[in-house]
């Protein structure tokens, strides 16, 4: 019975997640359109709401092509390996005081460890395609994800030092007891986290692994149909998961005025974090590769280490 309940919970989360990804893609198009003085999707459904559904149907009906010289087994496995970790990390997010996944003691560690597997899907997809553009895109992707995973993880260490726990619920409860969200005392860490997460997600202005002006489409150049959709699904699923982690760590999770349920506050905060990403996508030009790597190693990592040192001193001083 326990296994059946876990399976049903996973299916329910997947269905909700698919709806969330559909909404996120539509929201990104509408927000970017508004910022750039365009209407955005407006043909299918009221206010263009059926546009993403039409795109999904189109991808499902497209021919699934595997290049003749590709490594077929790895080519087929890569999209699955990109999506599965992004979906698996949803298992430890806690959406309210009564709704959530596995409330384990190492929730943050599990999230960071499992999510890092996604880069294997990127590398395998580019390498197995037997395409130079795809290979360059995958190499860029792995280098970027490894480089920016370090400051992302280091930005979280300050919160762990203060709370003394890797449990998601403990982190939210600590903010409730403190009467303040961690975005205030850990504002520098929040900035480092947000910038690192953009690079980790390969989103503009750090979308160099799929730079269409240089690499056609990057690591998924040779993918079509449903396998291409799997990469897109992995990207937006991972974005929702990282926004959920940011909400838990820095924005008090489900905490908010009592006139709305906790899960509603959680979802509103996730939407706010993703809106910031959409805003930056529509505003900033793409960075150069050398600028991207220098910024990660020479700016963000030192800032994250500085935050850890300052937080440690404050923790000791507070006793």
From TrEMBL:
Keyword hit for Translocase: yes
UniProt KW Ribosomal protein keyword = no
Pfam families in the cross-refs: NADHdh
Q: Tell me, what is an example of a GO biological process annotation in this record?
A: aerobic respiration
Q: What membrane topology does the annotation report for this chain?
A: Multi-pass membrane protein
Question: Which EC number(s) does the record attach to this protein?
Answer: 7.1.1.-
Q: Which reaction does it catalyse?
A: a quinone + NADH + 5 H(+)(in) = a quinol + NAD(+) + 4 H(+)(out)
One MF term in the entry's GO annotations: quinone binding
Q: Which InterPro entries match?
A: NADH_UbQ_OxRdtase_su1/FPO, NADH_UbQ_OxRdtase_su1_CS
Keyword set for this entry?
A: Cell membrane, Membrane, NAD, Oxidoreductase, Quinone, Translocase, Transmembrane, Transmembrane helix, Ubiquinone
Task: Give the GO cellular component terms, alphabetically.
Answer: plasma membrane
Q: Where in the cell is it found?
A: Cell membrane; Membrane
Transmembrane spans: 6-27, 74-95, 107-127, 148-166, 178-196, 236-256, 262-283, 295-318
Broadest EC class assigned to this enzyme: translocase
Task: Indicate the family of this protein.
Answer: Belongs to the complex I subunit 1 family.
This chain's function reads:
NDH-1 shuttles electrons from NADH, via FMN and iron-sulfur (Fe-S) centers, to quinones in the respiratory chain. The immediate electron acceptor for the enzyme in this species is believed to be ubiquinone. Couples the redox reaction to proton translocation (for every two electrons transferred, four hydrogen ions are translocated across the cytoplasmic membrane), and thus conserves the redox energy in a proton gradient. This subunit may bind ubiquinone.
Record text on subunit structure and interactions? NDH-1 is composed of 14 different subunits. Subunits NuoA, H, J, K, L, M, N constitute the membrane sector of the complex.
Please state what the protein is called.
Answer: NADH-quinone oxidoreductase subunit H
Q: Which organism is it from?
A: Salipaludibacillus agaradhaerens
């Amino acid at each position: 019975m326990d296994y059946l309940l876990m399976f049903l919970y996973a299916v329910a989360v997947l269905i909700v997640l698919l709806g969330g990804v559909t909404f996120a893609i539509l929201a990104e198009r509408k927000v970017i359109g508004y910022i750039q003085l365009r209407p955005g999707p407006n043909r299918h459904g009221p206010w263009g709401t059926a546009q993403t559904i039409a795109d999904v149907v189109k991808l499902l009906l497209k021919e699934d092509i595997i290049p003749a010289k590709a490594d077929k087994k790895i080519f087929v496995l890569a999209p699955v390996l990109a999506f599965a970790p992004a979906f698996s990390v949803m298992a430890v997010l806690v959406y309210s005081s009564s709704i959530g996944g596995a409330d384990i003691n190492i929730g943050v560690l599990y999230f960071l460890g499992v999510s890092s597997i996604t880069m294997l899907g990127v590398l395998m997809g580019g390498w197995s395609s037997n395409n130079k553009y795809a290979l360059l895109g995958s190499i860029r992707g792995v280098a970027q994800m490894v480089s920016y995973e370090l400051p992302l993880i280091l930005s979280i260490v300050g919160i762990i030092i203060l709370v003394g726990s890797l449990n998601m619920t403990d982190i939210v409860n600590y903010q409730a007891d403190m009467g303040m969200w961690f975005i205030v005392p850990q504002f520098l860490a929040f900035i480092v986290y947000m910038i690192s997460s953009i690079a980790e997600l390969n989103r503009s202005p750090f979308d160099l692994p799929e730079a269409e002006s240089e690499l056609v489409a990057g690591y998924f150049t040779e993918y079509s149909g449903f396998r291409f959709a799997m990469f897109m699904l992995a990207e937006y699923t991972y974005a929702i998961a990282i926004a959920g982690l940011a909400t838990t760590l820095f924005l008090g999770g489900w905490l908010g005025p009592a006139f709305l349920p906790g899960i509603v506050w959680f979802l509103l905060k996730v939407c706010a974090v993703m809106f910031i990403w959409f805003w930056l996508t529509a505003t900033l030009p793409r960075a150069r590769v050398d600028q991207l790597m220098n910024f990660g190693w020479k700016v963000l990592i030192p800032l994250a280490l500085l935050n850890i040192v300052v937080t440690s001193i404050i923790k000791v001083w507070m006793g």
